[in-house]
Amino acid sequence: MRRNVELYIQNQKADLFDFEDINITNSIKDIKDIGKVFTDYSQDFTIPASKANNRILRHYYNFDLLDSFDARIKVDAIIKISGSDYREGKLTLMGSTLKKGMPYSYKVVFYGKTVSLKDLIGDDELSDLSGTLLDDFSFTYSDTFVKESLVDGKEYDQSNSSLITPTTTGNFDLCFPFISSESFYFYDSGNGTSPKDRVDSRNIWNHSSTHPKKGIYYKDLKPAIRLYWIIKAIEQKYSIQFSNDFFTSTNATFYDLFMLLHRESGSIGNQLDITEKKIKLGDFDYTTGEDLRGLFASVGQPHYTSDYFNMTNNQLSVYRQAYNITNSFFKISFTVTPSAGATGNYNLSVKDVFNPQENTNGWIYQNFELETLFEEQNIDGSQATNFEFEVKSDPDTFTYNIVKIIEPEITISTLAGIASFTVTNIVFEYRVIDGGDNLISSSNYTYESGSPVTLGGGVVLKSQMPKIKTMDFLSSLFKTFNLTAYFVPDNAQDEFSGQIRVRTVDSFFQNGNEIDITPYVKDDDRITTSIKSEIADEMFKLVETGKYKKRNLIKVLREKFKDVNAGVIHRLIKKNMDLRILEIDRTYKTKPYVIKGKYYIGG
Known about the structure:
This protein has eleven helices and 34 strands. It has 603 residues and is α+β, with helices and mostly antiparallel strands. It has four domains: 5-121; 127-271, no CATH class; 275-454, no CATH class; 523-600. Strands 2-1-6-7-8-5 form a six-stranded antiparallel β-sheet. Strand 18 (296-298) and strand 19 (301-304) form a beta hairpin. Helix 10 (550-560) crosses helix 11. Residues 581-603 have low confidence and may be disordered.
């Protein structure tokens, strides 16, 4: 029963020639390019230039068309057998042929679905694996974190998307191996002179010397990540799934591999940039109290909307009465809490960034330079810290009333010390000094609804990945472990359907089925050499008598060698006679001849 083969190109049924076969080849062993050859592919075959095919391939043969088919791009295709999907993949148009100036056929090649892997990943590098679980591997950079990661490592808690202290000794996914990026290390229990004089040298012997260069300097170390999670990130990034034959936590040969994140020479500390977040008063959301942002101050009067000066919610206004009789100021307080796990430091500063406009009202004091209102450095990122600063007019005594516009800007910065933070307990107090410090009004605010704000601090792991293309990374693994991969169709009755099956080549062949190929072997290939020699000897004896034609030879030899069929004997006669004739010609320089089907040797 002949099965009906159908070809669909971009979900459109294509016409096929009745005489054309589609031969599918399973390529498994060539591991030079995982993105290209680990797939089923066909020999090129032709399809007719029918009305339907011309519509699908947009009259590719016609060079005058502007919007013709782009043969550089592989398109989706499906091969069906008797209505059922046989293979999904891509189809490449190789060319077209004309006969007598008319379109006749198109030459195409079909590739199995795995070929799309290279098209999908392209030239992306490992550092492009953003939006994946690798984002959870970012960490705050501090001596405490590095030490913990050197001694015990960090385990990836996928359920909480965070790095934690290993729940089982030795079960870590991120570590800082003792591989120095800069300093030279030595061990000397005598604490003698450093053996190196051109680079920093550090004695790791535990001694009480006050020499500053002893022990392991945390900035010399760089992190390493388990390769298993890079594979998982690739799956997540490109929406693919590798089988668990090889890429699995139970395969120690692979699972125990780590990649040292040594993207550039030198320490990580020299490669990190200071990141910062700027917050203005207008970024706070008002909740309760009297909101005085953007309102103008007046001596002894409530704040109001000024007709002389347009203020914004980023600005506050305070006054000083002539001869320093009374003056007003704001006291602003808030709490900064770095996200859990932060062990580094950060800095916080508040500056007046008010950019004054031209104003003819001399009683409005204009500050033409940035003024630091508050500053604190190297703040411990492992705990919450309360901050408070005041917004005042200048302390000098004036002979007239003045009003000062101030625009405080809060800057939180870090060198990989904290990754995110929250700002809470935000309170503005408006106070007046008139023989005493009097609270006039108070207001409360929130910032980002109390949710964590990403600072961008910390070490973003993917940015430290070696500069290598993702496809090159995969290819190196396949070459190292002699792996092979092929796509299991979605419709396959297989536990790995829809996955890219990755196995060692040895495993692939060992799992094959034993097939008896005897019915497919030519009969004469199964005949032993001794029987062939017997048939040849008997044939030459009969021929030399000059009494036997070819037909008679076959009959006589069949009777003598009943287990050998006529076709085999016919081929043996032709083969051996050709060899014998060639041998006689070389020996006697004579030409053999055949008359009426008889075999003769003579001159």
